[in-house]
């Protein structure tokens, strides 16, 4: 099943093929001067994949308002179709990450089958204990896995176990646990007792984790809690992963840190101590802005990938991070934002691959700070778009995915099929 | 009409009267040593007032979820009753600030009358062009007063004029304009053209402002826009007030600044240049957290009031700022949070009043940094609660307003009268 | 030997004794209402001690300039005398923390003896590998314990071992290691290799640590390195302490964190995992401003002490943190700043002691966020100065230490004895 | 006179000429597809110039230490030679900005002549009232232009007037005033009175400004003052420029803002209101880190230039900003850092020039946030190095300036001529 007509892709590619060939050839010449084989880079890029979040294909919002677009997906089946569009055009997003209970369905077999038909697999499962589902017995208003009340914690544990069960049936191999637990006022909770309760609850979940699964805990500085957050930073996150065991890893969301923090260094530390589980990619300027990956500080994204490629090339022990986008698309067509974000992640990976690492190590050992930093800048400055485009085209995707998406008229089509949704603000100010 | 039984207040006060008298007497003795007349301070505190936001009596939330409490107000009439509770206990919140269209009603006369019956007046009107109201012709998804489309701007202008009209009928004397206009991505809008459009639209509103009204523009660094915001800081806000004219002033929300910014200095600058319009009080640790005033950094609140009292005492020209609470109560009973926040504002004011200003000026002129700063700290360290409590009691309020509120059983009463609201997350992530 | 005349202290105290007695009595009455015995609190406060940094008694500066004051100490002997002044007046600073090589002397016996004569002991030793000492063989321009060159690392290791040796002779029991190692540009160093080298070097130092000593590693977000810092946060610091062994602990400097970070939570985590070694107290608004403790955000200081008292009262395993001031006094008389900072630390401790912990725990278990946070605020709002002053007076110190210091004319005396130092900027911009 | 042998430049260029031709041709082809004439861009880049700060050619430091390099310039004559090297290789830095009294000499005629001989002119003069010069009558410890004492203010005013006099003789046309005035503690100074004194002092300087000169005031959030700074942000800076008159403008240093602040928006506002005077370019991650321009966040630099090119192309009224580098080179050869920083500024300018502005405006008007932001990203992603290199080569500079500088052996030469300087820490902690 194909969501975007092969003919449209072919027609759009035909317009750009000539320029791409010329650009690819010239870039190949440039890279050859540096001793880099462009085809080898292209092959690695082609093999690279990043998961798409099911919730990302719907229009996001803020506490002030949400402004839906046309053709909003109504359920996980609609979402899968939207995700398929992204993968067909980029050839970089073969898996989808689900959020339970948002994506819960009665017939998991049908869901799995639909995914298979669209060429999509299922990435890490995401539990949700940061909002109350209709009819839920115990409220998460005051926390979930760290709640003062044992019954509420138990409910949250069971929800996570259910997510594992659903994931098993869909072929997922990981559970991502992000909780909003924390406080809004000094004194509201005891930091130590809260964290003890959290650890106990996570251990209960961990005991239900299949042997071939991993569990990812995700830290976040603040929001929805505005004074303290139970899993507030990578230090606490590392302690969690260590306390739980070998299948427990830390997940890094790029937008979940304090201002000015050196995130690539955190990535390096987690790799060094064997606990980097994966990423939620996005970009941000202020808080957890959840903007399109690479849209605010592309160099920072590159520096993260520089660490990843470094680890990959030195074959760091236990290094196998999961890559996922996690964004909120408030003012763009979510499919377009995910397309370009997937592309940006590929771009940063390609730029990381063309860093001249032997030269870099030499400059580092010589304390030649200028040439060391220029070595990274040179890789970053290189316009690797021809590599990305060639890899996409060769895999059946689009040279220019956004233009092709627009040419295909997908949004108009679903806008006709799916009912319009009224926007509005929830009075949440 | 009284929301809280006078008997309950009397009974609760009776329990605390003895201690209060003793504490007040001893504090009077301490202040007398510094040459300060406690009764004079008390009289000023008693005359102080801060407005309560109508939206503040409902439970707030985040983009992730909202967890309503029991007895949520259903409309502006319920909200007025809740506001009356706050004023009856604190005697510090005689006015309510409305938000349109949230508080729009067919019969404004009835609303005004109800307010009068409850002893409540109406403070600044707040327009809303940061979310789409049902049935609205033009969407504010891409802005309102600065929107690229003239018809959308016109709609936003008319909405503000309507707010003025409503306010006139209710006895309000000011319009507060906060817009969410801005962008999520570099390039999304042209900063200069956007601001020109904003200024044009504000001028159109200004032309409709009655002679005895003021218009307050409110700056905010970010959220809901995550890359740029049209009215992003006090510098832009000052330019707006100057461009508009003598009735235009800047409103300062304590949570709308960049990390580490010295807010009290901004307050001083706006006073010096005659453009401080007023405040939205709250507290925050990370972003626009909208926490209870004084709950995170009480010394910062004091330093703001130190500037206000300084301006008041030197009779700074044109100094007459409006004071309003603006908070989001996500995990507390909103009435309780507003009670203590009103109290905190009074506390900071009282602490500002007992700063020994002549001594302070002397230390400043002598560059005696240590004694100058200790002079402020001494005022801040003084526990002025007896002054606040005595002022409340003498005005018919409660010595301990939260305890009295709980004793009165108001929340239970309205929980029985008002239907429960289901919580939940909007899928806005 | 006494630096401040007992007569001056007695005369100054005599002026304030009456008021103090009255205030202490009334505070005792207030605390008794809450079930708190003021004398018990006073006894704990009297037993509390914080170390003074030897370098703190000289006027500090910035990279732009340094403006020395009158009577700058010329060497560690002058510094000890200045430190003695602080202790004689506050009775809270019985130990001094040395910095090597700044405080290196040929005759350690004489130094120890002088300390004993002044009633001063020696707290943690501080090594210095963030600047080059005259004649030093290998430069620390590009790092010390993490330097790419083995000989430089070895030199840094040996310097630390020398610090231990000096400390042994003086009766110190701890070594504090703060390094400036890091980079100014992305790529300048490999994060992982740098940290491996650092760990190796620290292990070499650790092997030379006496059995009854502790080693404190200190993290800092940035400065002097402006892109990355080897020991950048508590996460890395914790890893260090864990890798080294049971005698290794983390030191927390209040000014060494990212903006908005919840420091009291870090303190709680380190206590929970048995690795809190101690503190460098100071205050800051922007970066590592090294301002007087409690001068910018006194509530934050209280919240840190709230965690410390909590741990003390629940007898947290292995909890025995070292307390030290670490400040830069650029515009005040350093002795005065240290006097008031020592007092502020005592104040926060006293406020922590009067938190009603059983009630607090109850509110926490009930998710009564408002009353829980008010419980802390009530303790913080209480003016505990009478407790501090009474404890000082009873121990032979001054009721008002700064006023007494000024009355004693110590600064004038040393200004006459010690030659004036020219200020200036180093052209370091 | 030539500091770098023409032969070395020629020989180094010869090695790279072939590749450059090929790259330039291909880039020309790519840009032509977008309707951009590469030669026109190159001509604009060739005409672009940025001033070098005289103090920038010496190794900088921090309050902790300074680690000088080999061949440190001893005086302004040495500095001019170093600056000439930068210009000869980059052809982009034809002027030098002086700092008085650091660069004060008896014979200004000789200085001017030497500059002329090296092909260097003199950019804005910089006064220094943030440190005390030897023998200075009144200390700036507690401020300069805003000092409480009139005589100190007068001294600072006179120093600035002297800077103007020196500048007139050298052919400069602007005075940059950056002061460190501010406070370390709340209460230390009265914000309003301080600012009044500052404005009075600046007016006195302004009266002495020649008709064809401009005066630039520079704001900075903090450092060396750590609680408040008199000229703390662009809002205050704008007020200053407006109060002074038509020859007064605001100078923007990229590192002088609060965390997360949108600097390009400030630039746009100052342009819109006719008060953008110029820039101090550098880069930073935490505070005023003064790192090499473009080394931390190159996209932010591009976004600033996007505003500048936008203003240039729409011929914004009064738009003629001065461009200057202002950095501290602590771990690199300062000449190399200035070379690459000049290059980075040119790069950002070139990238700004190739933004497809008509398309951008169209996307903005259509609220096509994705394509608008991609339009900027496309320009930024384009590797414009061939344009920069070709412009340099054609003007007699080096295709690869840093490699050519190294090949020329200049640092070794001056290391032999100029005495070594011992590093060290000033005990300023």
TrEMBL record, chains A, B, C, D:
The entry's keywords: Isomerase, Manganese, Metal-binding
Gene3D superfamilies: Divalent-metal-dependent TIM barrel enzymes (3.20.20.150)
Domain of life, source organism: Bacteria
GO MF terms held by the record: isomerase activity; metal ion binding
Protein name (database record): L-rhamnose isomerase/sugar isomerase
Species per Swiss-Prot/TrEMBL record: Rhizobium subbaraonis
Higher taxonomy: Bacteria, Pseudomonadati, Pseudomonadota, Alphaproteobacteria, Hyphomicrobiales
């Amino acid at each position: 099943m194909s969501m975007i007509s092969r003919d449209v892709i072919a027609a759009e590619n035909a317009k750009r093929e000539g320029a791409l060939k010329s650009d690819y050839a010239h870039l190949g010449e440039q890279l050859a001067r540096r001793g880099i084989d462009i085809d080898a880079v292209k092959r690695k890029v082609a093999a690279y994949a990043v998961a798409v979040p099911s919730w990302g294909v719907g229009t996001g919002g803020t506490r002030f308002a949400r402004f839906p677009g046309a053709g909003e997906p109504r359920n996980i089946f609609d979402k899968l179709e939207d995700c398929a569009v992204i993968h067909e055009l980029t050839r970089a997003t073969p898996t989808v990450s689900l959020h339970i209970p948002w994506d819960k369905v009665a017939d998991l077999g049908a869901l799995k089958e639909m995914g298979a038909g669209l060429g999509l697999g299922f990435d890490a499962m995401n539990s949700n204990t940061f909002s109350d589902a209709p009819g839920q017995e115990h409220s998460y208003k005051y926390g979930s896995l760290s709640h003062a009340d044992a019954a509420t914690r138990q409910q949250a544990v069971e929800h996570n176990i259910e997510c594992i069960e659903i994931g098993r049936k869909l072929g997922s191999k990981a559970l991502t646990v992000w909780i909003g637990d924390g406080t809004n006022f000094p004194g509201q909770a005891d930091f130590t007792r809260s964290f003890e309760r959290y650890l106990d609850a996570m251990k209960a979940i961990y005991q239900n984790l299949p042997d071939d699964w991993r569990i990812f805990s995700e830290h976040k500085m603040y929001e929805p809690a505005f004074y303290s957050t139970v899993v507030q930073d990578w230090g606490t996150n590392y302690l969690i992963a260590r306390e739980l065991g070998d299948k427990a890893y830390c997940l890094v969301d790029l937008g979940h840190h304090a201002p000015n923090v050196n995130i690539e260094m955190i990535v390096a530390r987690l790799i060094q101590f064997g606990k980097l589980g994966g990423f939620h990619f996005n970009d941000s300027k202020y808080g957890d802005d959840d903007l399109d990956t690479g849209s605010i500080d592309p160099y920072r994204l590159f520096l993260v990938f520089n660490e990843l490629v470094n680890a990959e090339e030195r074959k760091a022990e236990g290094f196998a991070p999961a890559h996922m986008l996690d964004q909120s698309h408030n003012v763009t067509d979510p499919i377009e934002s995910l397309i370009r974000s997937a592309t940006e992640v590929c771009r940063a990976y390609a730029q990381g691959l063309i860093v001249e690492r032997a030269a870099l190590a030499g400059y580092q050992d010589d304390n030649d700070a200028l040439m060391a930093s220029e070595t990274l800048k040179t890789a970053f400055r290189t316009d690797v778009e021809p590599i990305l485009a060639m890899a996409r085209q060769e895999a059946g995707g689009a040279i220019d995915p956004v233009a092709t998406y627009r040419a295909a008229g997908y949004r108009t089509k679903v806008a006709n099929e799916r009912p319009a949704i009224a926007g509005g603000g929830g009075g949440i100010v």
